[in-house]
Amino acid sequence: MGLKKQLIKWISKLITTKKNKEIKGALFFQNQIWKNLVKKAKHTKFGIDHHFEDIKNYTDFKSKVPIVDYEQLKPYIDLILEGKKDILWPGKPIYLAKTSGTTSGTKYIPLTKDSIPNHFGTARNAVFHYIASTQNADFMEGKMIFLSGSPTLEKKSDILVGRLSGISNHLIPKWLKSNQLPSYQTNCIEEWEEKIDQIVQETKNQDLRLISGIPPWVQMYYEKLLEATGKKNILEIFPNLSMFVYGGVNFEPYRNQLEKLVGKSIPSIETYPASEGFIAYQDKQNEPGLLLNINSGIFFEFIPTETYFSEKPQRISLAEVQMHVNYALVLNTNAGLWGYSIGDTVQFVSLDPYRIIITGRIKHFISAFGEHVIGKEVEKALMHAMQKHSFSIVEFTVAPQVNPENNEKPYHEWFIEFEESPQNLTEIANTIDLALQEQNLYYQDLIDGNILQSLKVRSLQKDSFRNYMKSQGKLGGQNKVPRLSNDRKIADSLVKFVIYE
User: Fold this and answer.
1) Global pTM?
2) Whole-angstrom Cα distance, residue 434 to residue 453?
3) Which of 497, 464, 498, 495 lies closest to 481, judged by CA?
4) pLDDT single digits (tens) 341-374
5) Which residue ranges form the domains of the chain, and what is each CATH number?
């Protein structure tokens, strides 16, 4: 056994043992983090504006710190961009993670000296948990590729600004740098297709053992590799490839095709990173859900989704959560985010330890008729149909068709790019529809009451979603296609790609 691998196994055991002890004291650590956050930010502008000096307990906190999204926090971010200090957190952020916004355009999320360990340390812990539980660290002795955004950073008021995945490139320790692919120069290429082509050339002759990235862009990389090398599968190119680290989207709809491209199933680690904080990660290979990051500078709050849009939404701490309830996730962090609604929804699948699954986006749903269909439901229905009818997909999205032609009843319209276009679209649509009805009684009532007709599936041309994302300037990196929309902005852009028989 190599000295490096031996050392990594030893460190993995130490860190995993420490984290397993922390799990038992989850509520204690959350309470300590909450106290420390309020105490440390008491003299910031946000702390003064919201009377942190009067906060004695969690009830006080909820009364003084409102639930906000980026648009409501933006006036404070603007002060940071002007170079002001002690705004949301003492001092100035070290980085601002630049990400896409909704109504505000580009968003700038602060990363501070205190919060940086949350981002890189958690990614490390996810890998170390796997090593400790399986004793497999072979992938640490070869090359690793991280399909990420450009690490090029700019400055705004002496604060470094860039994509989170690009910033992360600067946080990789020296001992791991020699394993990292692609080169810095290639990683800096902004145009995604050009970048992927260059990554293929740089990596095709390397001993690649670990790959990290969002599944659809990993799939694109694999396809380009096979095209460039003429090989049948990825294991013919990288026989030692043995780890896939992913996050951002549900892996299951992509699994069949990725495993087909690789040549077999390889171990994987699911993570839940965001610019706002590294929220959870897979700590067990044989347990469902992701371990909530309870001792990493984030105080979590949760809002039951049915109350989210009400005048006074219910707002609870980790101590009050229940199993299988859909919650909107709210963060308070040592980067200076307060009552920040990240936009994601989660459910707890375990309370000992606290493990979650991601169920969708609070604003990504279909409720044109009161059905409130969420991401978890459409993904589960699609997976059922994939297993029953043996097909693979590249990508999909769903939207309501409220005003169909020819006086038809309204319906949900599914746009799916299949790996191979099937002949039995009607059967597939019926299977998905029945599976969706089983999960969502409101949807079932609308079908039974003839308010809605059964959903329709539209088969799309090859590369439809890639072309759509390219047209939006969001090809590659950490960008994801929204699975659900309550309007037809995405759907209307995809109609031109529909295959009509």
Assistant:
1) 0.83
2) 12
3) 464
4) 998 999 999 999 999 999 888 877 788 887 888 8
5) 3-116+274-284+293-361 (no CATH), 137-266 (no CATH), 375-497 (3.30.300)
